[in-house]
C-alpha cells in the first residue's frame, strides 16, 4: 500500500460507537500507519508497526481494539505498555475520548509515582483497558491485584524506547503472564535485535508495516514554535497576526468543527477569514481558495485533508494552531508556503505536554525548530504606529490636500490652536477604533463564542472591517477582562475529583485557558473524592459554560453546573480555600499560596495536623 491513500475513517469497519466518536472529534483521513494497521487489527492479526513517534500510532491501535471490547465484562481486556508516565496518560486520555459513546467503559492509567491505593481502588471497581509503564504493571502482577485472564490484546507502544530505558526484561515478564491466544501489536521507530527477538517469540505470524517518515522540509521556510503558556492560544495568534510582516495566512487545526469556530472568532476580531474543511462542497472550497488568491480573504483556517494540494502564491505564513500528531502532516502543512523559490514562515503552537511531538518532528525532519517570543503589547503598539506613519506618508505622496490645508488654516485662525494640536486631534479621530497603544483586553480578548469586537488588528494587507465593527467597544465584563476583586461570584460543581487524579492546577489551568477567565477570578477550588466545587464570576456566559461542559481534565469531561451555594463578592472571597480531600486517614494536599503569577503552590499535610484558625474578616 502506498504512503498516500484516499481512505477515510468511515471506510473502516469500526464499531458504531467508535465511529461516532471519530466523526465527532473531526478525524477525516487516516495517516499511513493508521490506514495500514486498522484493518488487520480489526481482523485479530498480530501487527508490527515500524513508524516514527508522532505518526498517529495511538489511533492506529486504539480504534480497532476498542471496537472489540466487551462492555459487559468488567475485567482488563486490553493492556497497553508505554515507556513513560506521560505517554501512558496521553494514551489513556485518547482511549477515553475514542470510547466516549461506549456505556460503562473504563480505562485506567497505571504508573510509578501515583498512589497505589488509588490504582487498587479503581482496579477493584473494574476496568476494560489498562495503560501502564512496565515497572508498575509488574508490581500489580506480583501483588496479584491485576489479573490478565480475560486479556484479548497487548500493545507494546514505542518498544525501542522501552528497550533504551531498560524495561525489556519487564516487558518479557509481563508477556509471559498473558493468555496464549491474545493478540499482540508492537509499535517501534526502529527494530533492534532485542525487539526483533521478542517479536519472534511472542507474536504469531505478524503483519509487518513500515512507514517512511518525511525527512526533509523546504529550506526556504523559517520554522519557529511558541510554547503555550499563560496567554490563550487565540490571544497569542492575534498578536502574531498583528506584528508579523505577512501577506496571507493558512492556519491549521485538527478538526472540522475547529475550522469554523476559529474562523468565526477571528472574523469577530476584524480579520478577513474563512474556513476550509471536508464538509464544504467543491464549489464552496473553490470559492474560498479564489477569495484567498484575489486578496478578499487574508486568513484561511483549514484541516489537513481540506488543504491538500493547496497552492496559493500569497500564503506567506503557515500557523500550526493545533500541533499535528503525524510528522508527515507537519511537512505537508508547512509546504503550503515557501513554494517556487519563495521564502515562507511556519509557526507551531506547542503545549507543554506536546513537547514530545515537537521533538518527534525535529527528529523526523532533521531540522531544529527555534523557540519564538510572543509579541508583547508594546510590540503591537510599535507595529500599529509604524503602519500609521506609513499611511500618512502614502496620503501625503498621493493625494491633493489643498482643500484640507485651507480648512485647517481657517480652523487654526478661528480657534487659536496650534497645528500640532490639530494634527494630534485628527490622528485620534482616525485611529480611535483601533488605538495605536492598545490595552491588554483588546489584544488579548479571551476566546468566547459570543465574542464580537473590533479586534486587535489584522495583517498589513487587510484593511476591511465590517460596518458593525466601526463603533467603539464598551468594556467587557470583569470576568472576561480580568476585573478587580469585587467581581460577583457563583459556585459551580465539576464532575471530576480526587479519585480521577484531578489537581487544583489542572482545574484552574483548564478553566483559565478554555474560558478566558483570569486565574485570580477562579476561587475556592475544593477537590472532593468524586467531584470538585469552584467559584467563578457570576456573569459567565451560557455559551462559555456549554464549552466547559466538554473540556476534559484527568480523563473526564468537566460537566460543569451551578450549585445552590450562592454567590460571593469582594476581597474576602478572593482568598483560595484548601483543596479538601475526603477521608481522615488520607494525607491532604492544601493550597498554601498563590504566586504573583497566579500559580498555585501545594504542600502535604498529614491527617492529624491541626487546622489553622481562619483569620478574622
From TrEMBL:
Lineage: Bacteria, Pseudomonadati, Pseudomonadota, Acidithiobacillia, Acidithiobacillales
Glycoprotein recorded as keyword: no
The organism of origin for this protein: Acidithiobacillus ferrooxidans
Similarity field: Belongs to the DEAD box helicase family. DeaD/CsdA subfamily.
Compositionally biased intervals (Low complexity): 449-460, 565-577
Subcellular location(s) per record: Cytoplasm
Protein's name in the database: ATP-dependent RNA helicase DeaD
Residue stretches making up the Helicase C-terminal domain: 236-381
EC nos: 3.6.4.13
Motif (Q motif): 7-35
GO cellular component terms listed in the entry, alphabetical order: cytosol; ribosome
GO biological process, one term: ribosomal large subunit assembly
Regions of compositional bias (Basic and acidic residues) in chain numbering: 594-606
